[in-house]
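Mods, move this if it's the wrong board.
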Amino acid sequence: MYERLKIGVLALQGDFERHLYQLTALGVSGQEVRLSDDLKELDGLIIPGGESTTISKLIDRFSMRQELTLFTRQKAVWGTCAGMIMLAAEVDDETVRPLGAIDISVIRNGYGRQVHSFFADISFNLDDKHMTVPASFIRAPVVKDTGSAVSVLAEYENRPILLSQNKCLVSSFHTELHDDKTLVKYFLDKFVLPSQVSQPTVRT
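Not the wrong board. Structure tokens:
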């Protein structure tokens, strides 16, 4: 089912290799995205965890901001941890210029610095199905506020950690560090596959 999909992973900085590994394990064609031309013909994009200030600066250094912004408005995109920060509408750090794909306000490192990182099993319901996924919170962002069009899909200790709006999915935690592929499949099934028939290919 996934063999015909081509999913890009922003590979400027961060843990992009683990996302590519999981995509390959599902039979998806994964592609590193380092330049604007790499966005052509993609069915979706994952923005990985890493250092959001560095990712933001590199996006500008390689003149990718305009094309990335257009892509996130038209195609399926998933941001994990720093990826969530980059896709947000507002960030509490002026050194980060977010892409504004989802109407949320986030606090960088809201869960604390590296020494405060932790692991948890997150339980929630998606499409009326109960599931539990392993989640690593590493300098994870905290969602401060959400717009009315944003759906909160999961919470941890009364804080939103998995949210969506239109074709955009964001998670404040990492799942790619584990072998569980539940959220990868969810992203492909609910965001990528439907958008294939509803949106034209982005031209950059």
